[in-house]
Amino acid sequence: MADVTGDRSPLGDSQGLGRAVILLGPPGAGKGTQAQRISQRYCLPHLSTGDMFRDNIKRETELGRKAKPLMERGELVPDAIVLGMVADRINQPDCAKGFVFDGFPRTLQQAADLEKICGEHRLGCTLVLHMAVNPELLMRRLTGRRICKAGGHIYNVYERPPKREGICDVDGSQLIHRPDDSEGVIGERLAAYDRQTQPLVEYYKSRGVLSSVDAMADADTVTQGITRIMDGVKAPR
Ligand code: ADP
């Protein structure tokens, strides 16, 4: 993906950011798109609980069997299941210098668990980027979203269509419409966000680690807003 903001940050390869970067926002806020870009620019692994679950479902693991019906209904997977999976991933060596998380934490319990894990890994204070978008735009983004089967590249048939319909510009693979991106399920996902995830905004605000990003703008403008915030954050010593 193009680096729309110029050169890589000085906090690149060798140093890492030394922090967990959390993208917090409703489904359709653009967390996945921005996480891919941040991951490239700051050389941080991109972790996505949604992608981890979809991978488990594809491989027909026990975890995938548990998550599938809940995801199909737009409900959250229970905290205990999510946490085990996340802890295993953060224990991998590539996460030692920080990571960018999209889709986690989604409940207050998950936020508390993440804080504990970051402490154990001696990561500096978490940076939370809150991506705010109004509900009408979310619906349009989600119903129009198409995802590349091979590389996870994200398109939108209204806002960011591929050059050839149904085909990824980057790797030529097929674009799919996620089953939970249908209108009925989207309503459930947005309700779950309001009920269970929205309280995290106050939680992180009160800890002084929340920065707000206007996620209504086009993707490149949002990336510029995020990199301005991240470039202002120093790696912990
Ligand atoms: P989106 O953010 O666009 O809703 P994701 O791909 O992040 O999509 O998540 C898809 C689904 O996976 C969610 O609706 C939920 O069922 C499950 N899921 C993902 N992350 C979590 C999490 N941290 N806690 C509980 N369930 C989760």
Helix content: 40-55%
Class based on secondary structure composition and strand pairing: alpha/beta
Rounded to the nearest angstrom, the distance between the terminal CA atoms is 31 Å
Describe the largest sheet: 5 strands, parallel
Strand content: 15-25%
Question: What can you tell me about this protein's structure?
Answer:
The structure is a single chain. The chain is an alpha/beta fold. Helix 1 crosses helix 9, helix 2 packs across helix 3 and helix 4 runs parallel beside helix 5. It has a five-stranded parallel beta sheet with strand order 2-3-1-4-8, with helices on both faces. The chain has a three-stranded antiparallel beta sheet with strand order 6-5-7. A hairpin with a 5-residue loop joins strand 5 and strand 6. The N terminus is likely disordered. The chain is globular and about 45 Å long. Adenosine-5'-diphosphate (ADP) binds next to helix 2 and helix 3.
